[in-house]
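Problem 3 from the worked examples.
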Amino acid sequence: MPHAPQWYVPFSWRPLRWPYDWREAQRYCREKYTDLATFDSLDDLNRLKADFSYSWAWFGLHDDPAAWKTSMGNKSNSWRWSATGQTSTTGYQSWARDSPDFYQGKETCAALGGGGLWNDAICINSYRFLCLNGKTFFYGYF
């Protein structure tokens, strides 16, 4: 399988062509790299936007129903990063309009959609995905 060019940037993601569900993508990223991608700021996302075509890709954010409070419901602060198990340390979010909405009680994983906005999605859907590669970041297409 030929490799396309790789672009080096101060942050790293590897968008992979093979579609996996969220758990398979997480397992693959943890075995081959560090984890699914994490975004701490708009700058992170803007670096990715330059060379990445958004057609639904998993990244490392998932909803943790155990963090819900009855009075709070499904709010963005119940979402955790795969790499740390914690909410955002910077408070950065980039949700699409009306997301997260926990549609039909099944959307507990996050994917990048059009324009790089975050969308909650059903975790068993198969999408490409973005892996975090330690602290020396690069991303490319395989």
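Problem 4, a separate protein:
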Amino acid sequence: MLENFNAYLDKRLGLRKCRDDVCQKYSIKHSGSGLWALPDIKRAYGKTQRLCTTTKKDGLSVILVKQILQHEHKCETDRLERENKAEKAKVRALAEQLQNLKAHKERLEKENNKLLTLISKQLESKSSSSFVDSEADLSINTCVHDPVNSKIRLAPVIVKHRRTNVEIDNEEGYEDSGERRTRTVTKVVKKYVPYRTYHPATPEQVDKWSKELPDVYKQPRKVWQFLQRLQKIYILHPLDGVMILNVTLRDSDQKRLTESVERRIGESQENIEDGWEAIKNFLFELKPAEVNWARITSCMQKTGESVAEFEERFRHIWTEHSGLNTSEDLDKDTGIPLKTAFVNGLNPEISKDLKIRYDDWDSTVTTFIQIVEWSAKLERAQDVRLRSLQSKSLFYKNRTIEDEQKEREYMGYSKLRTKGRCRNCNEEGHWARECKLSLKHQSQDDDHLFKQFQQLTIQQK
């Protein structure tokens, strides 16, 4: 409809010829589609406003309106094209990023599979090669997840079914001298028996934990405490601990530790406690226990350090320098040296209160964990007292400040009250009783009365 209207105007008003005349007159260069540049439109509009002839002015106005509408349409079209190009560029960038992430993920999965294969080959014992698994080995328990994708493993052991030779005792009857008797016969049959096998930790976990591990040869007891904490949190298998330690051990020590642990846990890999005991014995053999009482007695609670933090630091120092190889039974230990060293290392105020309030702290019945709990209780009571004293001092301080402000306000009010207007001299700044003029008149009156009194006394004489 708009095109028909434009064609009608061009034919009726002769706008085409008028447009050509305007372009020739004002040297306007238009594009192939007939669009003018914006400066040309502004110049033509200014010329149109200065025309006196109404007919030419109307024709040029129509031409300018058409040019302005076409210019706006072109601007809108260009804006939409730019937005479309920007969106397409974003889509291409996201597609490239997705492809890169996919390729990176595939590469990581391949590396993880290679590492898992190498680790499983290293951990396989020679005896396990003699067993031939049947097709039932593929039926793994569905509750076990892929260790590559799981961040925290919930179970270090999985259950499989293996066809093995099993001895079964059966009773069979036979005749002896015409009498019916029974005897026990042991038969060997093949049967699918469930057994537990080791499921190793992921390479990412082993790499992460090995980096957090202390020096094995300098602090073996601290390493054992670290492994104990990991075992409680992640339910680790002894062979997991072996893999973590092998990252930092020498080749000869790696072989000795692996053989010792595999021998203790057995082929069924069910003797988990014995495996951890083998790891502990190996670590404690790396560095013999040493006694350094100077290091223990110099362990003191620092300023701003809580009782719990001091207890953890004291446990490490006691385990390293007390000459003992075990630290599991420290909570139940009732030894006097341990308790005395801990109490003397506490904050002097807490140590003094502990000895006064709990006079049986050094008895053979009191355990180390009881002393730790008492110390934490006294620390909390001391913190409560300090907070109450701070609140009281802050209250009195605020009260003193308020009193000073009130006194300052009262003094200012009293000063304002002293500034009044005197009724004698009609001046501001003092009252009538303080007026100097009234005091002067009063002194003159007093002198006059004194003179009259003297005259009366003389007359009476």
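Solution to problem 4. The chain has a mean pLDDT of 74. The chain has four domains: 2-88, 135-141+151-286, 316-384, 419-461.
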